[in-house]
Amino acid sequence: MGAPSPTPLRSKKARAPGIPIIDLSLERSKLCELIMKACEEYGFFQVENHGISKEVISRVEIEGQNFFSKSALEKQRAGPPSPFGYGCKNIGSNGDKGELEYILLEANSHSICERSKSLSIDPQNFSCVVNDYIQEVRDLACEILDITAEGLRIQDKSIFSKLVLDTKNDSCFRINHYPSVNADSVDQNCNPKTRIGFGEHSDPQIITILRSNDVGGLQILSRDGLWLPIPPSSDKFCIFVGDAFQALTNGRFVSVRHRVLANSEKPRTSIMYFAAPSLNACISPIPQVVSFEEPSLYRPFTWGEYKSAVYSLRLADHRLDLFRNKDIM
Question: Domain Fe2OG dioxygenase: where (predicted)?
C-alpha cells in the first residue's frame, strides 16, 4: 500500500466549496440526481437524515474508546494485524506508516464474535454493538447503491447492492484512532501542518461509509490536484466511491483519493464500513455503461484478484491501472 504523497503547494489555500451534503429525506428523483452528480464529480459526499440511530452510533463509539484507552500491552494482545486485529502506526505490510492505531475486523458476525474475545472484557456486548452498527451502515450503503443503479437507468436496481448482501461478502469494519498531537510527540523535522495520520490512498472496495467525531483532518483530492479539507461533523456520514465501483461503472464514478492529517490538539476517531463483494465476484464494467463510443476501460477480474494486488502494493499506488484494458489507455 503507498508512501504518503507530498502536499501540493496549492493545498494550503484549498477549501471545500461545493462538497456535496445530501439530505436523504429528499424526494427520490432529486436525491438520485444529487448522488449521481457527487459520484461523478467528486467520488465523495456527505449524507444527513440518514436514519441511523444516535444510540447505535454512541454504543460503538464507547466500545472504541474503551479499547483505545487500554494500556499498550493490553492492546497488543489483540494484534498484530494479519490483516485483521489491532495495529499501531504500520499500515499494511509494505512499509506504510501513519500516526494512528486501529482495529480492523471482517464484517461478519462469526468473525466479530471470535475477535471480540481479545478486544473487550465483555465480548458478547462488543459483538452485539458492532454487529448492530454494521447492519445499520450496510443498509445505508445498499440504499445508496440502489439509488445509483436507478440513476444509471439499470432495470435491476439491486445490481450493486446484491454484491454486498452476498452471504460470502468480503466487507470489513474499521475503527481508526488518531492520538492528539502535543509538543512532546511531534517529530521536530516534521511540519506539524502536514503530519500524516493516514497517507494518500483510494479505497479498493465498492463503497465506504465513514463517521468521525468532531475533529478534522480528513481531506479529499480534487480533480485539479487540490487537497480539500472536509469539515468534521458527528451527525453526518461520509460516502466514498471505491475502486471496484469505478470499475463497475466504467470510470463514470470516480474512486476518490483521500488522506488524514494528524495535526489536531484533540484525538480523532473514525469508524468505517467498507462494502465489498465476495472473493469470487467478477468485477467488470456493467453492460449498461459500455458502448462502441465508450468501450470497456477495464478487463474483468475477481474481487479476490484485486484484493491480492492491493496487499502487494503500497498505499498510494494506483492499483486499478493494473486492470485497465491495454488497448484503451
Answer: 168-277
